[in-house]
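dumping the sequnces here before i forget
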Amino acid sequence: MADEATRRVVSEIPVLKTNAGPRDRELWVQRLKEEYQSLIRYVENNKNADNDWFRLESNKEGTRWFGKCWHIHDLLKYEFDIEFDIPITYPTTAPEIAVPELDGKTAKMYRGGKICLTDHFKPLWARNVPKFGLAHLMALGLGPWLAVEIPDLIQKGVIQHKEKCNQ
Amino acid sequence: MNRLFFQPHQAGLSKVQAAEYTLRNINPDVLFEVHNYNITTVENFQHFMDRISNGGLEEGKPVDLVLSCVDNFEARMAINTACNELGQTWMESGVSENAVSGHIQLIIPGESACFACAPPLVVAANIDEKTLKREGVCAASLPTTMGVVAGILVQNVLKFLLNFGTVSFYLGYNAMQDFFPTMSMKPNPQCDDRNCRKQQEEYKKKVAALPKQEAVQEEEEIIHEDNEWGIELVSEVSEEELKNSSGPVPDLPEGITVAYTIPEKQEDSVAEVTVEDSGESLEDLMAKMKNM
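..and the predicted 3d for all of it:
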């Protein structure tokens, strides 16, 4: 599974109750509220731990999400745009997060910039349907991916810092 | 199946477009309708379901069969959702990440297990783990395995549509040992998909309404006008051999396991923080997030 630090972070993210997808009308609105509550709490936790690493927002229907994520490496802050669609089988299947500007720069990515997660993610998600939501996806999916890929890409010179941004 | 048709001169085309051109050259009498989109999004899913319901040989009628040749779990779940809702029979196919096993599965909503009834099935690959650089990971792609799976898929389709032979509900292919496990799986009465459960009820009603059929044993008399040479037919396998080679039927036959297991739902066994209903509306929450 994930390492100890990640497990601790995840245990502090509120779990969700409503098992509803984007086609479930009123129940989907309920689920969306829970998603936002869980995400807000997670971002607050991150700020308190001095590790505010992403922002997310959605379209009105909650079917299309987009935002930014940051990774600090050697005192420099790298920023990336992220986006994903909610699949109709959500929350049984997790959304595929895409980092379009890194498309083609790493082998751990599918066409269009969709990040490739480890073998562990899918069974873990499946075991926790419908309790896991977008906050968990960020913590267990995108977070670990950035932690491994960005330093590697910087080291290989594949990505450069856009402008100096002191902490 | 979804990548077997590309030829070098088709670089730049989508997979479905290349498939159409290649197949049309092989058999110009086939009618094609091509769409290139992600079926898991809300917008496209509706169109996808619409084409299943109306894209039959006669426009407005449903298709006879859906064949899933996609390469990811999410797309398969989307097809499963659509077919459960529409009561559409379909066949699912796939090749494993390590390219040395594959399978086909026939899904009749309500009658056989749907794709969500159990965790994903895995044909045991029997790869020596010591040969792998990274534990449990061996990504590969073999058009030969894909060709075999495509062949058994279409074979199953022919048997299904033309009503001959035994149509397999599940047929696996273990390329390392040339082992072809088969089985059938009943639907899960507690399947997470509401429509699957609904289809199961409909199917039970349908079966209950059928008149009881006596199993009639008909012995076909083989008649030959003359038998100049006195040829007799003798079985190659003796009664005893037949008896010894049959055994009890296990839950899953040899060579097939599940990709993972899902524990029984426990009632609040672990102390977890759950979202609280703060009374804020969705708009309030969206604005709160934006201002963080």
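Helices of chain B lie at 15-26, 42-54, 73-86, 143-162, 194-209, 239-245, 282-290.
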